[in-house]
């Protein structure tokens, strides 16, 4: 039956396998008497008889089972077993293979191949390890041939690495779904993921703005394909004076109403004001009037935000170059709510772009901030303060120290979080 419902199309470069493919009889001997290395090599052959690969799916060695999980020739019956394997690395390998199986799922999802593939996806999408669920979410984020309830469940997952991919990309989430998810009280990175969706409707844009989540509104304003009503833009402009993160993306929106332009011109920097005028059609008389007001603000010393930020960035760079950016300095800056300095310092210490650091701090994820802190170098107790004061992570989501002083996340989890935000 279709080679045991198993022979799938290969869509990746094969691993290099040592030695030639054993015969069926030789393979049986290796399964019975071969050492782990020999059985592992056997498990890597994609053209091996299905029953051999199926048998190896229950091998005593997790090393062997990981190769079976990664093997495109493995029968779906074996993948079903591996989906609940006790070794999480086996399940991770299988989850990463899912992307190569999705194209084979039929639109009506009724043939046996599709049913078995979806059953595997469903099991992995409920995995206790968020990394496994996150891989599944990332693999199916653009798929149209998977069940909508599955996508909705992943979109409502409490872990950002699970919810964000489908929230940002899935075509199976309609306005009704998105509005309900926003109404549930999500914030931070999950809300920002919705704000980045292509061709976001005006209704959902309104819902994002109503949350007043600073990072999400900034992402929405930066989303050139998002539809934002003029009335909504006026509301944003009213609150934008206190949120410098909104200034540049707000200025870069096209066809702003003159009333909104006047409002924006009353608080943005001189350089952003010129961009605002260049991007919009404004009568010369109105431009002269607004430019005069900007000049008065400069003369009075009211325009100092840009200068302050540059000075703070420079201070962080000088301390970093002098080797003086340490845990004590970071703790003091955190306690002083010095967001600009903390963001720049972490970027320098972790060797990451400031934009990436800003996303990780604004994601509302304790795990994201913990991974960032680990890479930057502060002690884990400082990481907890960073989560609470700067990133404003909810108390129940704060990642706390293990045994009082050790970072509680595994190396794999930390690398996964970093990779998620740097891609």
Q: How do the strands and helices of this protein lay out in sequence?
A:
Layout lengths: L1 H5 L17 H10 L2 H8 L6 H7 L5 H9 L5 H7 L5 H14 L10 H14 L4 H11 L7 H8 L4 H10 L5 H9 L4 H8 L6 H10 L2 H9 L7 H11 L3 H8 L6 H8 L4 H10 L4 H16 L5 H17 L5 H9 L3 H12 L3 H8 L4 H11 L3 H11 L20 H12 L1
Helix pairs in contact: 3-5, 5-7, 6-8, 7-9, 9-11, 10-11, 11-13, 12-14, 13-15, 15-17, 16-17, 16-18, 21-23, 22-26, 23-24, 23-25, 25-26, 25-27
Can you walk through the features of this model?
The two termini are 41 Å apart. This protein has 4 domains: 1-154, Alpha Horseshoe (Leucine-rich Repeat Variant); 174-226, no CATH class; 229-303, no CATH class; 306-422, no CATH class. The relative contact order is 0.05. It is mostly helical and 423 residues long. Residues 1-13 and 304-310 have low confidence and may be disordered. Helices cover 64% and strands 0% of the residues. α13 (188-195) runs parallel beside α15 and α15 (214-222) packs parallel to α17. It contains 27 helices and no strands. The protein is globular, with a radius of gyration of 26 Å. The chain has helices spanning 2-6, 24-33, 36-43, 50-56, 62-70, 76-82, 88-101, 112-125, 130-140, 148-155, 160-169, 175-183, 188-195, 202-211, 214-222, 230-240, 244-251, 258-265, 270-279, 284-299, 305-321, 327-335, 339-350, 354-361, 366-376, 380-390, 411-422.
């Amino acid at each position: 039956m279709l080679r045991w419902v198993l022979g799938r199309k290969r869509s990746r470069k094969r691993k290099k396998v040592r030695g030639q493919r054993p015969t069926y009889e030789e393979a049986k001997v290796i399964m019975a008497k071969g050492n782990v290395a020999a059985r592992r090599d056997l498990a890597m052959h994609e053209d091996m008889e299905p029953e051999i690969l199926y048998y190896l799916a229950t091998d005593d060695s997790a090393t062997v089972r990981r190769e079976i999980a990664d093997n495109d020739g493995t029968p779906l019956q074996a993948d079903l077993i591996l989906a609940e394997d006790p070794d999480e690395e086996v399940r991770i390998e299988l989850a990463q293979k899912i992307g190569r199986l999705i194209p084979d799922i039929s639109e009506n999802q009724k043939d046996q191949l599709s049913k078995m593939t979806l059953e595997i996806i469903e099991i992995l999408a409920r995995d206790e390890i968020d990394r496994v669920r996150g891989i599944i979410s990332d693999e199916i984020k653009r798929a149209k041939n998977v069940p909508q309830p599955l996508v909705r469940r992943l979109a409502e997952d409490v872990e950002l690495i699970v919810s964000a991919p489908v929230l940002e990309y899935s075509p199976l989430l309609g306005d009704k779904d998105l509005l309900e998810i926003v109404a549930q009280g999500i914030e931070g990175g999950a809300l920002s993921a919705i704000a980045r969706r292509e061709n976001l409707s005006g209704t959902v844009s309104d819902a994002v703005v109503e949350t007043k989540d600073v990072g999400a509104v900034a992402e929405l304003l930066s989303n050139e394909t998002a539809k934002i009503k003029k009335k909504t833009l006026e509301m944003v402009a009213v609150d934008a004076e206190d949120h410098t993160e909104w200034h540049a993306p707000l200025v870069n929106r096209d066809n702003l109403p003159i009333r909104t332009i006047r409002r924006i011109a009353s608080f943005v920097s001189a350089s952003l004001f010129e961009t605002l005028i260049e991007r919009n059609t404004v009568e010369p008389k109105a431009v002269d009037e607004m430019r005069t007001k900007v000049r008065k603000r400069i003369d009075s010393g009211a325009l100092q935000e840009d200068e302050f930020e540059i000075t703070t960035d420079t201070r962080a760079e000088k301390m970093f170059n002098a080797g003086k950016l340490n845990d004590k300095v970071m703790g003091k800056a955190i306690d002083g709510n010095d967001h600009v300095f903390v963001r720049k310092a972490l970027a320098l210490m972790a060797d990451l772009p400031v934009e990436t650091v800003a996303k990780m701090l604004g994601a509302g994820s304790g795990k994201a901030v913990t991974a960032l802190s680990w890479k930057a170098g502060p002690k884990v107790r400082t990481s907890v303060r960073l989560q609470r004061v700067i990133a404003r992570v909810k108390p129940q989501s704060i990642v706390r120290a293990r045994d009082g002083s050790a970072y509680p996340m595994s190396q794999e989890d930390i690398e996964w979080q970093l990779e998620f935000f740097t891609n």
